[in-house]
Design a protein that fits this description.
The two termini are about 25 Å apart. Helix 1 (about 5-15) packs antiparallel against helix 2 (about 15-45), helix 2 (about 15-45) packs across helix 4 and helix 5 packs across helix 9 (about 175-200). It is built from nine helices and no strands. It has helices spanning about 5-15, 15-45, 50-60, 60-75, 85-105, 115-140, 145-155, 160-170, 175-200. The protein is mainly alpha-helical and about 200 residues long. It has one domain.
């Protein structure tokens, strides 16, 4: 999921409280989603089928490593060494445009007609099944207010550009992933306001 969009919308809706809720959502979702993605690729790909290869893929995933490193720095209270934070921040800000450039380059060879079925299936799951299921679970568990809105928002976000990088790295269908990202990013301009209207209403 594109957490850049999610964090921006959460901050716009609820200010500092929205940023805090977005941080909680990221901490809960990012490691889990990336772990599941690696396991799925291991299940369907012959070259990632052995336990050693799966473990190597997990520990080589930059998002999992980044989350683990951040958690370690937080728990130990060490923080980043002086002088490193500006460099890390600059690299982080470059990640989104670089990912989008990769996606754009991959779109040149995409064949939309042959990809219609997986495109529609992925988008229906992302924009309908996931937010509706999350809303239902929030109601069932008694979660309401700002926390419920942010939870539903993060489950209705379009797919992130890092998905293309992972698909390419692990032998998936990278051109299809690029098309999914592009389509969902455009569609989110309509679906996200609708989700927020229904959730806030």
């Amino acid at each position: 999921f594109n957490n850049y969009i999610g964090a921006t919308l959460a901050a716009g809706l609820y200010g500092s409280a929205g940023i805090a809720l977005a941080a909680v959502a990221n901490a809960a979702i990012v490691p889990l989603v990336n772990l599941l993605c690696v396991l799925v690729f291991a299940r369907i790909s012959a070259r990632h089928s052995s336990p050693a290869t799966v473990l190597k893929a997990i520990f080589a995933n930059p998002l999992i490593v980044g989350c683990a490193g951040g958690l370690l720095l937080r728990l130990t209270g060490l923080g980043l060494p002086p002088g490193i934070e500006p460099t890390v921040k600059a690299l982080g800000q470059a990640a989104l445009p670089l990912g989008l450039l990769c996606v754009g380059a991959a779109l040149g060879g995409a064949r939309l007609g042959q990809q219609a079925r997986p495109l529609l299936a992925a988008s229906a799951f992302k924009f309908l099944v996931m937010p509706v299921t999350t809303w239902g679970l929030c109601r069932l568990l008694g979660l309401g207010g700002q926390a419920a809105v942010v939870a539903v928002l993060f489950q209705a976000l379009p797919t992130a550009s890092s998905s293309y990088v992972m698909a390419r790295q692990m032998g998936g269908n990278a051109p299809l992933m690029a098309t999914i990202i592009a389509l969902q990013t455009v569609a989110a301009a309509t679906t996200l306001p609708l989700v927020l209207m229904l959730t806030l209403g």
